[in-house]
Specification:
9 helices, Rossmann fold, alpha/beta, three-stranded antiparallel beta sheet, single chain
């Protein structure tokens, strides 16, 4: 079992480290299946990827892409769709890869069908090689949409209830009266099956989450579902000094 926690001086340095992990994965296995998260933490990392794709498109042509979670009941062109967010942030990559090697979720479709097709895509490509993850805030230090206190180690891809604060934030972001109350997500077991996991977290607002998940080196998914990553066979955590202040 491999586990690294890399603490960098700032977010810019952390993103460079994270990009190196991804680039090395692609160089090692050009047809790697990459699990993609959404969220502002990953914005600048995706910019680095997009820049490299624009400069070296041939290096990325064989890559396979998989969206790890989505808000349920939203269309792919919705302002609160992770599908749209990922496509917008990684435009050069999606223009380069074969569409057959991409699985993005449509939150407006039957979730049972989405889950079936997602699992088929993963099996067809012999598993996720590298999954990119963020971590939720202190009130819910989750990975993907595996809500703390409501997710088990053996959970698989499924529909989940969103945390009330997450619902509130989605409502504000989308200027919606009725925000999604459910999501669809890879389960913790699915994440642990990936060959490599890369979690990134920056800023003091994530310090308590990192503490709850990793400081005691004990899995306690009732306090932090992200702590399940301590069971991962190949884990890299990248934080800045602020996010690591309680480690």
């Amino acid at each position: 079992m491999k586990r690294k926690i890399l603490i960098t001086k700032d977010k810019k340095s952390g993103d460079k480290k994270a990009f190196e992990v991804i680039k090395n994965q692609i160089l090692k296995k050009p047809d790697s299946l990459i699990g993609l998260a959404a969220g502002k933490t990953i914005d600048d990392l995706y910019k680095l990827i997009s820049k490299d794709v624009s400069l070296n498109p041939n290096k990325w042509k064989k890559v396979k892409l998989f969206q790890i979670d989505e808000n349920l009941g939203v269309k792919p062109d919705s302002s609160i769709s992770f599908n749209l967010e990922i496509r917008d942030k990684l435009k050069p990559l999606f223009k380069t890869v074969n569409p057959k090697n991409v699985f993005l979720m449509d939150g407006s479709k039957n979730p049972k069908e989405t889950i079936k097709k997602a699992n088929e895509f993963i099996r067809k490509n012999k598993g996720i090689d590298l999954i990119i993850l963020g971590i939720g805030a202190e009130y819910d230090p989750h990975i993907a949409y595996n809500t703390t206190g409501k997710s088990s180690i053996d959970s698989k891809m499924r529909v989940v209830d969103l945390h009330p604060i997450v619902i509130k934030k989605i409502r504000c972001r989308g200027l919606l009266q009725q925000a999604p109350v459910k999501g669809i997500t890879l389960g913790i077991q699915d994440i642990l099956k990936s060959r490599k996991a890369l979690l990134i977290a920056y800023g003091e607002e994530k310090a308590k989450s990192i503490q709850l998940a990793f400081r005691d080196k004990k899995v306690n998914i009732k306090k932090a579902s992200a702590s399940a990553l301590l069971l991962h066979k190949n884990l890299i955590v990248i934080t800045d000094k602020d996010a690591a202040k309680y480690l």
